[in-house]
Amino acid sequence: MPLFLTIDISGAEPEQGAPAPDRVLAGDPKFRTWNVEEADGGVYAGIWEATPGKWRIVYDEWEFCHILSGVSILTEDGGEARTVRAGDSFVLRPGFKGSWEVLETTRKEYVIRL
């Protein structure tokens, strides 16, 4: 197995998903996920995409995100709303609770550590 892995989703079939119905706050958001790495110790990397809508999020994991396209608003409970768009990078730490609202279909690269 090579130790250099390119995040390449061409020709790969995405996993289809959506937020749990009880977490949806607006719209009918749908997810597509291309998980290209699943390493020992609970580390995942790949590409995720969501269509417009708004839902509650609760993070138990640590996640690095880099927005590739689209526009979303993340709002932490009791905190300010942050608009993210192509080129933005950020980390969501365990314990983050709030909402994710997709204004324009958003695609991100991610690395998750459980």
UniProtKB/TrEMBL annotation:
It comes from the Bacteria. Residues 38-110 form the (S)-ureidoglycine aminohydrolase cupin domain. InterPro entries: RmlC-like_jellyroll, RmlC_Cupin_sf, UGlyAH_Cupin_dom. It holds the Pfam family Cupin_3. CDD domains: cupin_TM1112-like. This is Cupin domain-containing protein. It comes from Oryzicola mucosus.
